[in-house]
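User: Hi! I'm working on a homework problem where we have to compare a predicted structure to a textbook description. Could you give me the structure for the chain below?
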Amino acid sequence: MLHQNIKTLGDLKKSGYQSRTIKNEIRENLILSIQNKQSPFHSVIGYEDSVIPDVERALLSRHNILFLGLRGQAKTRMAREMVNLLDEWLPVVSGSEINDDPFHPISLFARNLCTEKGDDTPIHWLHRSERYGEKLATPDVSVADLIGDIDPIKAANMRISFADEQALHYGIIPRSHRGIFVINELPDLQARIQVSLFNILQEGDIQIRGFKLRLPLDILFVFTANPEDYTNRGSIVTPLKDRIESQIVTHYPRSIEISQAITMQEADILPAQQQKISMPDLCRVLIEQIAVEARKSEFIDQKSGVSARLTISAYENLVSSAERRAIRNNEQHTTIRIADFAGVIPSITGKIELVYEGEQEGTLNVAYKLLSQAIRSTFINYFPDPQSAKKIKDNQKSKAKPSPYQSIVSWFEKGNDLILLQDLTDTEYTQALYSIDGLYGIVKNFHPGIDEKLTSLFMEFLLHGLAEYSLISKKRMDLQNGYTFDDILGSMLNMNFGSDEDDDEEF
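Assistant: Happy to help. Predicted structure tokens:
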């Protein structure tokens, strides 16, 4: 291979190698990728018809890029995937701190070395994975971190003036010369630090403590930011924004199917967990629906956004919740239940930012409300809408069809109730569900082809759905991790009688 045989500048010249700027390099490799119908952004899902075409147009135009979007919208991943458009190996002057091009050295060290040794200048090859730099913008980031500073110790050891270029300690941006450099959360960078990027983007000049240094840096800059109205943390200064040629807006998945594909790709599930736990499609849909409900909830700050990491973490926790139950019950295999979704609550509470009304409601209650809303929204995709089941015949002329859920409602109206604890064995769980008159028959009527394990899940899901539509009552058992289902009217009466007794006792 080329990089294994070429060790000196002379060898490089003989090979016919020609240097390219990084933006031309990416442009030419992208053209080949498009011609071959190959996407360099192969791990990014859901942007095929929106963000990726915009990025490709920007790269073909040799632009620096600003990704604008809420958290969890794969902005940084898009930047990291651009590494696939770099040449696999790049020749640099050996010993250079800033990846000097052997044909066009810019640092004093590389210029002196090339002058001294000529064609014998040693060359080493840099892999494309080493040509990517990334910095998270925080208020404590300094110009020295990004650009560099004078190193007094180096100056003292070398007995040189502070004004000598050899006394410089290069920051992360010069060290990204001939590579891709990403600054995440750009508005968090102090305005005076953002100003230091002006000339680098436009002129290639950097200034360190009054010592003006002409360094024609060759870098593709990628910035990420939340929309400027996200919070009052900061904003992008206008002159800097003006120098970033392409601004691309990202978005959340536009369908449940895309969101599912992202979650399945990113969730870290061990092979042992996959063998032990079955994850039905219904449960996958519920996971994604939780995020959908969160992104339109009045309790959640929509300017902050709801990251795709919510569904990824929730998926992992859901699997672990069922795994824990199976281990406690000494079962070799089990299927996810609706009761297991109590285990995803910690994944929700840590991923949402509440508005004032949400804070009054409480993070835990908001998380359970999102789960309830997800069940309600998903229910009508699997069973008839219970809203029509609430119609009551006022007279003999009414021709409304009898409710398909009447047998279940009647069973609870007779004073029966059901307690479903989270840690029931599979046998106990199935027996409890089969004790309800008509529940099995309704599930089989609308889903005749499902196996017995899925039938049990759908029976439990049917109960939760009827509770969300107020045909029966459901109460969460915090101490025992489970649910109690009973008659909606009886539950309301018990609550009223209980309050009366409390009032009398207090009186």
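For your comparison, note the following. The two ends are 92 Å apart (CA to CA). Residues 392-397, 497-507 have pLDDT under 50 and may be disordered. Good luck with the assignment!
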